[in-house]
Here is the input.
Amino acid sequence: MSNPGNSTGTKSDLSWQEYIITRAIRAAGYSAVVFVALIFYFLLREGLPTLGEVSFSDLFALRWYPIENYFGILPLISGTVIVTLGAALIAVPFGIGTAIFISEIAPRWAREILKPLVELLGGLPSVVLGFLGILVLAPNLRILLNLPTGLTALAGSILLGAIALPTVVSVAEDALDTVPRSYREGAWALGATRWQTIWRVTLPAARSGVLTAVMLGIGRAIGETMTVMMVTGNAPVLAVTPGALFSPVRTMTATIAAEMGEVANGSVHYHTLFFIGMLLFIFSLVINVTASAVVFRSKKRAEKVLS
Amino acid sequence: MLKKFFSMNRNFTQRLGFGLLTLMAAMTVLPIVAVVIYIISQGGSAISLEFLTGFPRDGMRQGGIMPAIVGTFYLTVGTAFFSVPLGVAAAIYLSEYAPDNWLTRIIRIAIINLSGIPSVVYGLFGLGLFVLFLKFGTSILSASLTLSIMTLPVIISTAEEALRAVPQSFRTVSISLGATRWQTIRRIVVPEALPGIITGVILGLERAAGETAPILFTGASFFLPRLPNSVFDATMALPYHLFVISTQVPEMPFQIQYGTALVLIAFVLGMNLIATVIRSRARARRQW
Here is the structure.
């Protein structure tokens, strides 16, 4: 039946082609799952040996000094926590405030300017922000706050806040946009001012989306590498007091980036860096699954309310 | 009297609140503008033909950054080579084929996760899989593969959105005329969604071009006296070069640092601008 010379193809040629292409497309669709599994597998494969090489109490100890075989990761975790908290203190209020402004208050022309500008911030490479942090932010912080060095957790927090902002703004704005207009009209009809409507109706209705925005912003801040490596001063000391904000710290991501280039493959240090990567992977997994579950649940609730 | 007071109070609160929010939005946006203007004003004077086309000299304190520009171009093309076909195909699957079941939900969760994984963890994965396990070495190939997995979620989600925006009636008509599902996708759905797909691809590649952490241990080189010859060579890259000259080289002239930063943001924001233009022109022309 089939005629190889005929370029338009017979019916069986077509279904054969269609079969192969459909298979290939489906395989591509599954690829994301395969990659997540592969990433996790390689992190486990290279990271889990740490647990056999470094005792549990040495791993969760206070001293990170790999040259002398001190592999305590608590200082690194504390560094990540303090820098991320600082970033959240900046990104959450400013991100949600900007999102409310863009979605509820700004006239159309202002919106058309603001949205691309926020996207522009999202597109700036983190290494550029780190570079400006070293040359502009840190020296000014040092003088302004009278510190021995400007390369501190605070500098990291400020820049990470800027990096997390676009995520918070765009997700929160999406959430506010999906609140039905009738909610607002109902509130206005009852005599509420625009401000009261935003505060008592729109924002509570968009609550779960705003929460997702905060979580994704924090996830972005935890994972950021180059900026924090460049501006936090890279001192792996335990940072638990608010005062630590004004001293140098070292985050988990920065440790991996700074040290992986110099370790011997298969050494304890190498395995420990992979172990830290594995922890970061698990953090981001938990944050993202929870965030998407929140969205999913609230979507279902919204469907119930509207039906 | 009391009533009047309260209504004034309400209006006052609203004015105060709106003022506060406006201030917050301004404080979010103005620094962005300031940063871009500052880099242009500081780096503009460094830009010359020699800077753009020459090799670095004198421990990178003089000369140009051409190998880094070319390297970033190679990495971007390499990333596109792997991530565009895979990402677009995955988007087609999710928009046109995927049934609404638990497996599809798992795929979506996996994509969300891919987009949340820290960039340095991608670097570790690339080191483990491509550099060491598959023995590609520290190379353009390893770095491009690592970056392409990182850009996949951006490409998949924007391309899927573009495909879904094509009205269902287009598909129905095509199928009713006797076209197969794949013919419908290839001749009708994808061409209609093309501007949106291209936008997604550029946004994904923009991210790849600006990233440093994933290529740190998979393909970036501190300094190379010549351009890479094959995909198995390491390469210099703009973001990594900016990192190197702002932290690793003492007594680096500011001008070269700002010049490099300017070229990097011009590269990245240029891509962003192209994507924005394609998107808005397609929106204006759309007839459905």
